[in-house]
Write the structure tokens for this entry.
Amino acid sequence: MAIDRETVLHVARLARLDLTAAEADRLTLELGAILEAVSKVAELDLTDVPPTSHPLDLVNVWADDEPRPSLALDEALANAPAREGDLFRVPPTHGPEVSA
Amino acid sequence: MSTTWETVVGLEIHVQLKTRTKMFCRCAAGYGAGENTRTCPVCLGFPGALPVMNRTAVEWTVKLGLALGCEIAPRAVFARKNYFYPDLPKGYQISQYDKPSCEKGNMIVPMPDGELEIGIVRAHLEEDAAKTVHMGGHSGRIGGAEYSLVDYNRGGTPLLEIVTAPDIHSSEEAKRFLLLLRQTVVELGISDAEMEKGTLRVDANVSVRPAGSDELRTRCEIKNMNSFNYIARGIDAEAARQVAIWESGGEVKQETFDFDAGTGTLTPRRSKEEADDYRYFPEPDLVPVEPSAEMIERLRGELTETPAARVVRLGLDLDLERALVLVTGGLDGLYAATVAAGADRLAASNVIANNLVGAGVDPAAVDAAELAKLVAARERIPRVAFDEAIARSGDPDFSADPFLAQEVVSDASELDPVIDAIIAANPGQVAAFRGGKEGLLGFFVGQVMKETGGQADPRAVSEIVRAKLLG
Amino acid sequence: MIDTLRLTAEGALALIESREVTSAELHAAYVAAAGARDEELHAYLRLVDAAEGTGVPIALKDVISTKGVETTAGSKILAGYVPVFDATVAARCKAAGMPIIGKTNTDEFAMGSSTENSAYGPSFNPWDPTRVPGGSGGGTAAAVSGGLAPWGLGSDTGGSIKQPSALCGNVGLRPTYGTVSRFGVVAFASSLDQVGPVAKTVRDVALLYSIIAGRDENDSTTVELPEIVELPTAETLAGVRIGIPKQVWDLAGIEPGVRASFETAIETARSLGAEIGECDLPLSFDYGMACYYLIAPAEASSNLARFDGVRYGPRVDAPTYREMVEQTRDAGFGDEPKRRIMLGTYALSAGYYDAFYGQAQRVRTLLMREHRAALDAFDLIATPTSPTVAFPVGERAADPLAMYACDVMTIPSCLAGLPGLNIPSGLSEGLPVGLQLIGPQFGENALFRAGYALECAIGFDTVPERLR
Ligand SMILES: [Mg+2]
Ligand SMILES: [Zn+2]
């Protein structure tokens, strides 16, 4: 199963990776080979087999609605690459792309 | 021959739950705290942090589903909705996707011309995004911002998303539905649902079609409408825009607009560089929700008659609009108790919906028996006494009796000199009245009431004024 | 003089309890050993000089968050990141009095089978420093084998504890999914990741497992152990039924020396009283890799989305948020995380989900069924852990698929959520060979009993020959 360079670049945009041209070339080849190997799963007819998203059969694991202490402000911001006041600073966004 | 167009609207409503803690961590939820002081490794998306569900939020979702007549999923699953934005610390939002907690419900909305059934496609639980403030550039214009600042306090607050079927056909229906839905949520005690505070947010999907057809044409989404009236105006504006496009031979293309209430205009949002592809998959850090029969029955037992049902019932006694006002104002309980205490229905509904609400009295604090006495005496006692009594009716140990003891002035001998003076002082208005502007009667009555400090009986004043002006 | 090369954790504990040495002296001895040998092995990314505790010191893989101690997951994108909280497993080690010797090297985000994918340079095998120690937990394995730690914690998604343990001659346990908290462990693939112990003996591994295992309220996917952990004592396998997947014998790429060591180990098991039989795991061997390399990258692509330069990590400045994120991620992630992010994003994207991720989840169901059936008939399943002994540094670095093949025998049971134990079965070409024992869900005690009996009978010397 091959993947073309255009698709690689589209996927990179989805994943927010600013690939260099060389990286895009290399990944086109590597991903093609890997996809060919993993496409093996398509050989099986699994229409009646349910999917497993988790190896444990747990349900209803939750916590009571009781507040616990939050982090101190300086802990929350300790690793921030850019801070302004008590806020995390980022370059300008160009408008919300989606709503909640 | 011109086409008649029908508007088709489906709503997406986000309700912020008022749990004490966030959806997936135990940071306190709610407003008022200093920026980023209600954060922890989980809601900041620190490496290795894991979500743990808020049991109360899960139960409230089921409860709302039951109130809306939904099927409650025997197994609901959280998924990850993947996208990048600074207000989304993990790079994904945890949200119920293909297995939501509630599906296939409905709400009956009483309309003047009969009952309208609006389908609830789904109601699901998810987490809210953080708050981004755009700084610099042209103030308020996101596009011109020089940088943005992020406060993660709101991030991770539980949100209920409710999606309706495209069963709404006018802005009026939309407004009415939302009023009733909001009241339902408030009465369940799960959210304050205040649009101004953003704890209730509504997006509308609008399309139009020739009346009588059942096709679904391209729809557009309108966001950023922060009052019920703006929602109605936004829907009307978008429907008009689409009708104009179709009628001029054009084609509506799928877009998202922000509604600017100030100018009444719709601004298209910047189109994305690639189509939405959220790459949903089941959230492996959480386990499914399987509400037990015991839980569902317990929650069902906590439900009371829905606001919509109460409007219908009350509408049999009063007119529908009045019933709607009472119910969506949270006033119908007091109304019923006041009537039970002997008050006249119409008078009680008037006093409660107008005077009491106007005075800002909390209906829950009012003693219905005392209110019933006031309602009965409202024409007999001076206006000022009545107004003051209403204003105090929510006080602890309020008694109507001292106010009931006051008498209005209806004796012509006391009123005559006042009325004569006012007629003498306003020759212009007198001439106009005599020339046929009968509406000016109210002006004279008002002047007399003012002059007598509200002690006069307005009915008596009105009779005397009329006699003097016409005589 | 403390012989860190030979001292087991149990032995160290005995020395502390008899007051012959203090915890601090032990800690200093391991830090000193690292000072002497870690230039050659590069097992540690950083040492913790002033660690507190009263117990046996420990090495932690650098995916485990440690409060106040830089935690990078072997990636540049977390360079300088100092957690403000402890992972639950780190907290449990600290609560048990264990001082931290250091944070061990790992393939970036635990993605790899040789530790060559670390952004901070590879680790080297103490048996032969021209060879890899395995991965992704090559740092912990090399530290234990090279006498730089009595024991350590690794994390295992598709073999990252078992395979390096095999290549370095250690005992390593990948626990039953859900028995050890993942809270605070930098995530690779959430439905697969498990933290587990690496040590010189089965008893040490069991002891460390008993310290870290059990329900954690901060990890929704953990459970209380159904039975308490027992330190094994019996040197017999009487009545134990061991199944050998018949596919092992036909596996391409399995080295003759590995096969010979495996056969000898099976004979040893038989001589200890085990009943040896043949089991059948056809889908696991044929489709396990493909299934894993869809599910793990898909989850990883999402787990690695939080590295956006907003709240932590180095940032590449750019005029807009989007460019900042794209450039920060391109500069911060190495080749292997990028490959897996791309693969996973693709497998989850519109139009491909059903064919890839969805299909892989169904294959996973079959692999679980297949293992359940085998473990109905047998108490344990045995295979070689790795098809090869440690390979030369650089040999597979340029070929992702060749690297992925290292985990062909460790992956299927990981997908099934089952526990697996590596014990050394002997040497081939002077390098350790590992035996993998797979147990049923929560079957750790059975693994410890069998592993201990075999360990006693095999008598493998865990000290690398060149260091004796
Ligand atoms: Mg939503
Ligand atoms: Zn939090």
Q: What stands out?
A: Residues 95-100 of chain A have pLDDT under 50 and may be disordered. Chain A touches chain C through 53 residues (CB under 8 Å).
